[in-house]
Amino acid sequence: MTDPMADLERQLKPYRGQFPSFRELPAEGLARSEVTGLVERLASAEDRAWRDGYASGAVYHGDPGHVAFLSQVYTAQSQSNPLHPDLWPSATKFEAEIVAMTAAMLGAGHAASEAPVAGTVSSGGTESILLAMKAYRDFARERRGVAVPEIVAPVTAHAAFDKAARFFDMPLVRVPVDDDFKADLGALAAAVTDRTAVVVGSAPTFPHGVIDPIPEIAALAADRGVPCHVDACLGGFILPWAQRLGYPVPVFDFRLPGVTSMSADTHKYGYAAKGSSVVLYRGRELRQFQYYTLTDWPGGLYLSPTLAGSRPGALSAECWAAMVSIGEKGYLEAASRILETGARIRDGVAAIPGLHVLGDPLWVTAFAAADGLDIYQVMEDMSHRGWSLNGLQRPAAVHIAVTLRHTLPGVADRFLADLAESVRQVRSNPGVSTGMAPVYGMAATLPAEVVRQLLAGYLDMLYEV
Ligand SMILES: Cc1ncc(COP(=O)(O)O)c(C=O)c1O
Question: What's the pTM value of the predicted model, to 2 decimals?
């Protein structure tokens, strides 16, 4: 068997020996034209996979006209930093409007309470979730006298909740999901105690793309007097339009009185450039628990709303530009195309002998294998055909998150044909694999600490020149 880590290193460092690399600053700077030439060559070497629809998620819009438009906006605002609102009041305009438009889309106008929905822009889904969990920890400590506030979340909630739990010293109570991979309500109800800082539901979940029973979770939380966070990082900019289009989507947003906060990623189906998300709260008071202020620092009065200090104002300008240029009609049309393609892919996967779809997804389809077929080998065979899919575990599965790239003519058919061919190929050559398949295989059998060390070694590898 080949050494999977060595295989991975080869995959991660394809430019070694082919491009100039630097371990120290060059004694004299390179000509700008040389630098831009190098950077453009790297970009064009990497464009193809996502541009031609071979990637799950990753680039959600990617149309050349849209990308050029965002880049033009970035150029115009490249020096902006919202940490200095006196210098760049435009940054605060963009951010306030991004928050307002996202809140309105997610039911703020119909909110069942008087408290206005308030929020901030963050750098991505993970940061939005970290911020909300930190706000709930401090809220629970200060307002409810809970010494060690806990997060209650289904096992399928994003890893960012685990990250938040560890960063902020909050025990995470993971509850199981049912046969459809949705939060088990009975288990959730049993897990909520006086120590609960927040109950979490996802709309939809990252692994299986299914929507937790949000109305029931929100009602349970309200009934027990605890807050409820809906993670709509993936679905925030699809589900409102899916509802309008008549897809079977339960109410999942601020229209439910029990929902006290939400995360929704503008840099996914909001079609902004990477580095942008929105976290929303029912009421300004909760948002205040997210803020950081320092009053006695020799550096002056310090205040920042999110985790970072200085922030890239250009990304908020881009995000705002994406939202106002696409508008309701554009988002509705995009969602319609994505949902139609998602259904074709889901049904097509289900029709491939040996594969089955997990749960009842709309546009993020997870599938597993039966009859001794190794799904990770299928994923790997797909990668040799150019596809970049996401490996899942517990149970072993793979998913594809459909984006606008997959709605281009021929892409969904090519995916289904390649997948059927991969399944045939793996059936006739079981056990032949390199790269991620054996790593996933090992992860399922090795002790957690050994897997942790493997993953840390992988991260170390990223920083080797
Ligand atoms: C449901 C869900 N929550 C949170 C995240 C985290 O988002 P990010 O990768 O932007 O930090 C993701 C990412 O895919 C997600 O699907």
Answer: 0.97
